[in-house]
Design a protein that fits this description.
single chain; mainly alpha; 3 helices
Length: 101
């Protein structure tokens, strides 16, 4: 009797877990937008299970890394194409030719 009730309860819980959205929307407003943003970031981090760490001033802290800036000027232009871009182009061209595109 108890085993059948337990099985039924677990079955219902599995169904609820399956149909419940992972990211529940919050309808209430918090006191400050900054607190709300921080709470959203923390909730999102907990839901995704992914955390990013960076080294700042010799200490490992949670945060986002900075991307590299692209060069403002390049020596590769219309009259002087980038050799790696040309190689990529020809590799793609050969691959498409082999599959009949």
């Amino acid at each position: 009797m108890i085993a059948s009730l337990e099985h039924e309860a677990l079955s219902r819980m599995a169904y609820l877990k399956m149909i419940t959205p992972r990211k529940a929307s919050s309808t209430r407003q918090s006191a400050s937008p900054l607190q709300s943003d921080q709470a959203n970031q923390k909730r999102d981090r907990n839901l995704s299970g992914r955390v990013t760490y960076v080294v700042r001033k010799g200490l490992v802290v949670e945060g986002q890394g900075e991307g590299e800036d692209k060069a403002k000027y390049t020596t590769w232009g219309a009259g002087n194409p980038d050799p790696t871009a040309v190689k990529k182009h020809w590799d793609l061209f050969e691959r498409q030719k082999k599959i009949g595109l």
